[in-house]
Amino acid sequence: MTSHRESAAPLVLVAEDHNYDKMILEEVFARAGITADLRFVCDGEQMLDYLNRRGRYAEELSAPTPALILLDLNMPRLDGRKVIRIMRADENLRHLPVIALSTSESRKHITEAYSIGINAYMVKPANIPDYVAKIKSLWHFWMVTASLPAVETSPP
């Protein structure tokens, strides 16, 4: 077992279906000065394949356990709401910290996300400086302040 704090670059699994949003997130991490191994999946089914090491992620080295998951709630095939419900029902996955990234500021959407097991909900800012500030804050809390379970290096 290896703790995310022992690794030079914690792995962050990002479930995001828009290439533009992926590029923006990579830019935001770079501007924030955060060294992370960002890995992207494009929908909920691919995320569950990654987490359960199925299909193209069957080899352990192709799918190390993430220290943190950033989850778009509105994705094709299997949306983030269904993914988090599946994760929280799975004893091997329920401990993983999952942060919802959304453009919605709706109190209803935020309440729903927390009620189904999201650990935190972050509204995607409209500009890069605000996004950088939010990601820095989020990173500091989850990777420095919070005590997280050790990251497993073997399959679930």
Automatic annotation (TrEMBL):
Response regulatory domain residues: 11-139
Residue ranges crossing the lipid bilayer per the database entry: none
Xref: InterPro entries: CheY-like_superfamily (IPR011006), Sig_transdc_resp-reg_receiver (IPR001789), TCS_response_regulator (IPR052893)
CDD domains documented for this protein: REC_Rcp-like (cd17557)
PROSITE patterns named among the record's database cross-references: RESPONSE_REGULATORY (PS50110)
UniProt-listed Gene3D superfamilies: 3.40.50.2300
Alphabetical list of SMART domains matching this protein: REC
Top-level taxon: Bacteria
Residues recorded as bearing 4-aspartylphosphate in the entry: D72
Keywords: Phosphoprotein
Any one of the GO BP annotations: phosphorelay signal transduction system
Entry protein name: Response regulator
Organism field: Rhodoblastus acidophilus (Rhodopseudomonas acidophila)
